[in-house]
Amino acid sequence: MLPPVNLRMFPSTQPMDAADSQPSLPPDAGHTVTHTALSSLSPSLLQDLLRFEPAGPQRALLEVLAACVRHTQALAITVAARGQAPLVISVFPTERQVHCAQPLSDVLGGNLAGLQVLEVQPARWRAPGRTDAHRIDQPALYAPLGPLLWAVALHGVRDALLPELAGQAAYRVSPGLSLGGLPVPGAMAACIDRLRLRTSNLRDVASWPGVGTARAMRLLNALYLQSGLIVSRTHPAATNDNWSGY
C-alpha cells in the first residue's frame, strides 16, 4: 500500500508504461508540475522522493538521481529548461549507464541549474547487456552514469546537502576512489586530497581555501553519488556546533 501523498506536489496519474522516447509537454511553461506515475514506483522510492519539500512545484534533478541510485531502480526522468522541449533521461544505476536521445555532453554543457523535473517513471528502455534485447536502444544513445551525477551535483540547482549527509556528521573520501575523466576544479581537488587523509566536518571543509559552504556541500553530494564518501556520525569530528550551514 502506497504511503499518503501530497497531491499538490505529486499529482496522481493513471498506471502507464514509461514512454521514454515520448515525453509529455508541460501544461504551462511558466508553471510546470511534477507528474509521477505513483502506482508504477516502488513505495520505498516514492517515500524517498517525498522527503523533499521544495520551494517550487518541481523536484530538483539531483534529488531524483540520488533516490534512483539509492534504490537501484531504473527511472525515466523527463526534464526541461524554460522555453525548451522536454527531454527524457533514462538512468540505470545497477549498470551505471544513462540513455538520452541527445548527446549527454550537450546536456551536461547546458544550464543544469535551469532543468526542471517534469515526470518520473520506471524506465522503458533497458541497459546494454540485458536479455530483453528488443528494449535496448542504439549503443550511441547510452553513456556512463558517473559524469551525469557529478555534473548535476556540482552545477545543478541544489546547493544543500542531501538529507542522508546532513546533520551531525564527519566525512572522509573512500580509499580507492577514482574520478578519472571527471572535471575537478582546483580547489575541490585540494579538498579531495585532504579528505583522503583526514576525517572532517562540513565547517572544516567549507573553511578551506577557495571552497565556502555551498561548494563544500556540492562536493560532498558529488562524492557521495560516486560511492566515494564515508559518512561518520560517531567520529570526534562529527559536529554541527549549532551551525545553520547544516
Could you characterize what this model shows?
There is one protein chain. With 246 residues, the chain is α+β, with helices and mostly antiparallel strands. It has two domains: 121 residues, no CATH class; 63 residues. The protein is built from seven helices and eight strands. Strands 1-5-2-3-4-6 form a six-stranded mixed β-sheet. α1 packs antiparallel against α2 and α4 runs antiparallel to α7. The longest helix has 13 residues. The radius of gyration is 18 Å and the shape is globular.
Q: From the helix content, strand content and strand pairing, which structural class follows?
A: alpha+beta
**Low-pLDDT segments:** 1-34, 54-58, 242-246
Radius of gyration over all CA atoms, rounded: 18 Å
Q: What's the number of structural domains? A: 2
| Overall average pLDDT | 82
Distance N terminus to C terminus?
34 Å
User: Quick one: overall form?
Assistant: globular
Instruction: Write the element-wise H/E pattern from the N-terminal end onward.
Output: EHHEEEHEEHEHHHE
Helix content: 25-40%
- The strand line-up of the biggest sheet is 1-5-2-3-4-6
Helical stretch count?
Answer: 7
What is the strand content? 5-15%
| Total number of beta strands | 8
Summarize the structure.
The chain has 246 residues and is of the alpha+beta class. The chain has seven helices and eight strands.
